[in-house]
Design a protein that fits this description.
Layout (H helix, E strand, L loop, with lengths): L1 H23 L1 H21 L4 H20 L11
Helix pairs in contact: 1-2, 1-3, 2-3
Length: 81
């Protein structure tokens, strides 16, 4: 159930992810998204008795990680000669 909620909530973040990369730059966007992912992963054992809080942490983790996973970084490093 948490995966479905996270996937549905992550759809708008996929659309905004490319805009954030262009607006803030790749380094700051990736640092921000990885920080949010880390905070949500660290918070999961802290909120373990509550299923609702687990869903919130899991959804935050999926929303923060999906733009990083779905945007191609290989194109930035390919040199055409």
């Amino acid at each position: 159930m948490a995966g479905l909620i996270g996937a549905l909530a992550a759809l708008p973040f996929l659309l905004v992810g490319g805009f954030l990369f262009d607006l803030m730059g790749r380094f700051f966007t990736i640092a921000l998204l990885f920080s949010l992912t880390g905070i949500s992963i660290i918070a999961i054992p802290l909120v373990a008795p509550s299923v609702g809080a687990y869903y919130v942490c899991r959804t935050l983790m999926q929303c923060a990680l999906s733009p990083v996973l779905m945007n191609p970084f290989v194109n930035d490093y390919v040199v055409v000669r």
